[in-house]
Amino acid sequence: MNIVEASFSDVRVVVHDGVYEPADDTFLLCQYLDISPGEKMLEIGCGCGLVSIVAARNGATVVATDKSLAAVQNIRENARKNNLHDKIDIRQGSLFEPIQRDERFSVIVCNPPYLPGTREDPAYDSAWSGGPDGREVIDAFLSQCTNFLEKDGRVLIVQSSLSNPEKTYLMLETLFHNSTIKAEKRFFYERLLLFEAHQPRQLTTERF
């Protein structure tokens, strides 16, 4: 098994084969997470768990989910290594499937697959490919996230400028009272954008 290491601040993790290795998008989310002790955070698509572990280290109660069994096993190992196994509730499943209908969170974060790509592409990888327009997971996440937020909750989601960030902004404006691009990182071929949205306009328990 090929294992690599990654770190942010004083948090160190290992990354197993088949699990997304923390990169610029992960570190952007970690840097601007602004989590407070006592907050309840949900991470959708936790991968190796770096973001969830950073949040738990800062005092949050965390639920971390991933559809990949390899990722779930990986974050369990990293939570133990960082002595946070009792602070992170780890569940396997796609998007919000592992979450109970009556569960609510003050913060929901997601670093989804956001690049355009299809299974026919030679370099296809489900860790980064969000379908032909890069928006399959982004749109599914946004259409459900307000169902699981507290009244004054907020959402953080990372995406690329290659996957129609204008549509994300319009969706957030419809769903939330306040939304903004909290941070971005520029590359010669794209920009990474971190959207933050506060206070859902309407809470509902109905799943989309």
Please characterize this protein's 3D structure.
- With 208 residues, the protein is an alpha/beta fold.
- It has one domain (10-200): Rossmann fold, CATH 3.40.50.150.
- Helices cover 24% and strands 31% of the residues.
- The protein has 5 helices and 9 strands, in the order ββαβαβαββαβαββ.
- It has helices at 24-31, 50-57, 69-81, 136-145, 165-175, and strands at residues 4-8, 11-15, 40-44, 61-66, 88-92, 105-110, 149-160, 176-186, 191-200.
- The strands form 2 sheets. It has a 7-stranded mixed beta sheet, with helices on both faces. It has a two-stranded antiparallel sheet with strand order 1-2.
- The relative contact order is 0.14.
